[in-house]
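dumping the sequnces here before i forget
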Amino acid sequence: MTISAQGLAWGIPLLRLLAALLLLLAFAMLAQRRLLTLIHLLAWQGVVLATGTALVALLTGQTELWFSAALTLGLKAILIPTVLHRLLRRLQVRGDVEAVLNIPLTLLAGIALVIFAFSLAAPITALTGIVTRGMVGIALAAVLLAFLMMITRRKAISQVVGFLAIDNGLFFAATSATLGMPMIVELGVALDALIGFVILGVFFFQIRETFDSMDLQNLEHIREE
Amino acid sequence: MTAILLELAQVLLVAFLAPLFAGLLRALRSILQNRRPAGCWQSYRDLYRLFHKESLQAEGTSWLFRFAPYGIFGAFCLAAGIIPILATGLPLAPAADVIALVGLFALARVFQVLAAMDTGTPFATLGAHREMLIAGLAEPALLATLFTASLLSRSTSLSVIVAHLEQLHFALHPSMVFAAAAFFMVLLAENARIPVDNPATHLELTMIHEAMLLEYSGRHLALMEWGAQIKLVLYVAIGIALFLPWGIVPTAEIAVLPLTLPILLLKFAAAALILALVETLLAKLRLFRAPEFMATAFLLGVIGLLGFFMLGA
Amino acid sequence: MTSCLPLDLATGALLLWLGLGLLGFLLGGWPALACRLVFPLSSVVALLLTIAGFTALTATPDDLQLRGPLPALPWSFQIDPLSGFFLILLGLLAFAVALFATGYFRSLPGPDLRRLLLQYHSFLLGMGLVLLAANAFTFLVAWEIMALASYFLVVTEHKEAGSRHAGFLYLLIAHLGALAILLGFVILAGATIAQGGPFSAMLHAPVNPFWASAAFLLTFFGFSAKAGLLPLHVWLPDAHPAAPAPVSALMSGAMLQMAFYGMLRVDFLFLGRLALWWGPFVLVVGLTTALFAVLFAAVQTDMKRLLAYSSMENMGLIMVAFGLALIFRAHGLDALAALALAAALYHALNHAFFKGLLFLGSGSVLHGAGSVAMDRLGGLIRQMPQTAFFMLLGTLAIAGLPPLNGFVSEWLLLQAFLLSPALPQSTLSAVLPLAAAGVVLAVALAAYAMVKFYGIAFLGQSHGTRHVHEAGRWEQSAMALLSLACIFLGLFPGVLLNLLHPVLLEMLGQGFAIQQGLWLTPVSAQRASYSPVIFFFGMATALGLGFLLIWSLFGRPLRRVQVWACGFPVRTPTMQDSPLGFVQPLLRIFAPLYQAERQADDVGRWRVRIGEPVYRGIYQPLNRIVLWLSAQVLRLQQGRITLYLLYSFLTLLILLAIWR
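..and the predicted 3d for all of it:
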């Protein structure tokens, strides 16, 4: 996977910018109270991912990555957000997302997580000589932040968004940080995400039929007493 | 000798063009909000009228009340001599780096707050403590953004930072992008703009900056207003120096200044446009949402910093 | 012969202080004379000590052995650049404080005065001895003299229960700390401690990493009990305000720094090899302390209590700088460690001056206005213009504003933080700038707290004090001196940094670039520069020109008018912010931290009580555990003689069984 000198000059900084944007979007999700905006943020993350993949395709000249970029754009930036959006309307989930922790505190915890991810990734970055090595840490941080978001939320939809954001982080690590991965793996991952998404979608309706609400707090009652 | 002249020219230029910038901003905002603007020169007319009016001193105020307008004005004039606006390497520039500049702004603010408390009126003290809160929360965010720039160029001197960044050929530094966003938010907060404060409000309960000026009149008020206008220009100038430095020339190459001056003015005009847009699109936040606003700015600054370390740029 | 001058001078000065204390005790029958005579002499002695400190910076280290009370334990003293620096700090502060005390205590009745004079001078003596001590035995005795003397000074107002409680808590924690220090020394010196072995036996003591860490933790614990670091600070906000103002000034300005002195000596000189985690540990403790203290300083309503919390905050900042120095040192970056350490030492000196000034000023307020409760003050700038002016300087200095001295040390500290990319450990170098942001937050909030301090007490309208009078001439001159010191340290930082050079050389084997002229360039002029003098004159010129221009163009006499009270016909002092009202946003944002209780009193006003979370969270549970244990022990005591006989019998049996 060779990159031309010219590509190094402008492509890598752009890729870094995308990485930073991904992190920013992860933080924005963490801080976002409203479900609708959350879905929009997820869509933007998809756009960033697709751009990143396309950029890698352009830089390394791997043609199948173009396909992958298109797939990402269609699936993660358009299809899933649209479906979520419609779900939101169908289920008539209203109002704000409740945050369990208060937001500045959550953000502080997020910063701590990023630092942790950075220190975890430091040995990896020291090992490889690829120009994009710093991005492993960022992708890991995005995953951890999405996890944190799932922990601090109660609504089922935000759980799904968190799940998808985790997937986004992994995907970014795979494409941008290592400059592309085999097509077959990628398809597998995409399929996995889709299946998870569908299962959770079914789950939504079940939850709602049972509890008349999308608040996962209700699940706390169905343990064995 | 030319350096000293240039220094003087820069201070005078900033001092006398600051009302124009404020006027332009107000005019742009009017246009964006479908109102008829009063024209770019309105700020000058305001200042002229205020200077010719009688100044009143509130009963029971001390020398601090009279000293503050001059102190604040002096502080901002000094800052205008330090920030590289026209050129780098000005004679005053090494006297203070970015950290000292932040300190200088803090000094001016403390004088303003003390002067407000000197009057002992309810709204002035209200404005005073809100100002201290906002500033207290904004300062870490500001420092985080400045640190990003300093780490990148291994210097805290604005002049050196500008010189360093100009040498790099145009490249996107993710850390700088985030720092720029954070800096912009701090700029809004520190200069009493929407969404943190409303410069046009005179509704007592919501105002911060204006509340502190309630007792001022005549030339004192004029100085305070003028000082605030200069401060806004200085913040924009710092922003330009840190994030879009191209066009600021070294003192030695002063001959090219006539060429770069239009670019500089254009950058300021663009800044006015962006500010006007933001102030039109955003609504004022409740005071207790302001910490969240600041936390976001701080977060952006921190992501910038971390980005610097993680990505190395 | 000349080389032993500093030590002779210093020990001589300490003996003179002791003599003055005894003289004061004897002269107690003539209070006016005692006050007028002893305190000025005491300040002269303080100057001697300062001179000794200055000469010690350049002279070769020197020591002195005296036969002690016990044959095997000699008193031994030494002086080196490090103790020289702290002697300067102590001497200069004691000089100003003694001048102030001359006026401040003039109306104290004889018996009280004689006690005070003795205790005051023993306290000074104790601090001086701590700095000169050259073996563990001398050090600990001096440490105890300092602690006991200051305990008696804290309970000067012993008729008040609060004062006694503060004293008790102080004594308890001080002794806990002393015990930890003793244990730390035992680890370091091993057997030699019992023979009064000198400190030099501990120099780079070859202890294994585990015991080194244990010694570090024990001494850090012990010294931080005195320095008021979290969570051992609970005595500080009670004890400092309880003492009379000059004593508070000494306790805050000098005594806290003795703890810092101890840490420096133990960590840099005794424990030569630093473990990697000590620095981050100290830094985190310092930063937490600073942020915690500044938040609590802001919500105090008593001037002296606010200052006490602010002292804690400043100690926290010093610890941050110290921790940074430890980090750099542990990674072998001595030049950077020198910068961080210079910031710490600079701040220690600054703090002595501005905190001394502010405590003295609040003493003047107490005498002049009869109270230091901020909700009863206000508008003092009109009745006490001189005091108000000096206090304004102190406030600006402590708020870290240029061109005064507080800013210089803050600036140096931030510069040191910015050098973190030089560290080999990438995570640490990424986290450090965030810690710097924390420092900035603490400093900015300190400005909030100090603006409140000044604004509520000195500006606005009076909340109820009448018949206010200005401080006397002695007091004013002392405050003027300290203000001058703040201005000097602010404008000419290069002078002090050059003086620090030998201290840094002794501690780290490396100083940093000698400062030239009016510029402060710790690393290189390219990297960062700051020139307070040019800064000051630039601002003064702009201010003066602006004033002249505007006055000549538009100058008309000012007309005095009523304040516009927003349409209300009357304007009462209660319409201003109360001390708590001023920090209401903080109370709201950090509500979980403050655990404020609000209740309405009889006249329908809100009373807000703010708890001390550490006291509640750690000390009270501990207290309960101890009480519970005592209650268990109490069960053994049934009051029946036969039972006690049984205990003795059982003990005897057990002992016999063991000895067999």
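The mean pLDDT of chain A is 76.
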